[in-house]
Amino acid sequence: MTMAGKAFRSGSVVLALVATFAIGGCGDASESGGSGDADAGSAMPSFEPLTSDGGGGAPDGEPPTDTDAGPTGGPDDNIVGGTDVDIAEFPWVVALRVSGKKGDNFCGGALIGEGAVMTAAHCVTLDAEGGGYNVLPPSVIEVVLGRSVLSDESGGQVVQVAKVWTAKDFKRKGLANDYAVLSLASDVTTPPIALPAPSQTDLWTVGQETLTLGWGCEFGPPAGPECGERPGDSPLKGALLAMQNRNVCTQEFGSLDASHLCMKSTTESAGICQGDSGGPFVVYDDGKPFLVGVTSFNALNGECNSSIPQGAAFVPRVTTAEHWLVDGIWNVCEGTKACPHA
Phi and psi of 323, rounded to 5°? Predict the structure, then answer.
């Protein structure tokens, strides 16, 4: 993908197995797996109670105070310069993986309700022949909760996805409006993270420190090898980045969509990588965590390093009342067949 002539890469590692399932079963809107406009009166899930005024429920806490000096491991490790963290402190962080495949994740996400996860739209879509894109059928995606190490089956929970909601104005080229919500097949008891209220503008001002978390790679090409398929035994890691003036990203990438926030490590010691896409960017306000961004893209020419800016989809753009509850803002895909979009 290109952005004003400069290459960048999304942080997802969508496995070949996902592509096989998805493209093999494309349906149209008349089929059970097809797509169509969300019915705001009946089909569209309600997220209004999840704002800071009435939702969340995640325990108070603090982000890690520092990160490692930089990458020290191989491609099985995760988040460039990240610090190992305990899922108990960040229970709303989730991993997305192929249903029935007990390896590592292909993306991350954040629990925003008893039955809903927010992630990046590019995590659940694939380019289609002749243009447009296909939304992955929810039957091939499962969500892992409560595990610092994904392969540790002694704890946590694995839940199937029932519906995939993608923003209607999402663009795979340039990753504009990179938002998706997954409706889970069953409710969970894990406490969700709160969504910011429109008045909390101080949570996304320049210089604001944010925490990002994920199970992605530690580095990719040309600095290191491709991730490939991982066994799922890398721990959850967190890293601190700061919100930047938009021109920091436009100087690097040539442009930045209005739906993106620009992030960068102030010490050039941390960043995101393949597999971290869809994961949260979180700001703490008086100890309470708020989801302000979703990991969207990172490295120039695919190189995962900590010296360049990172892009996050700006969550309040779609979760404030004037946007989130607007009729027709989402497309929905359900069933066992992929949903095509022009």
Answer: -110, -45
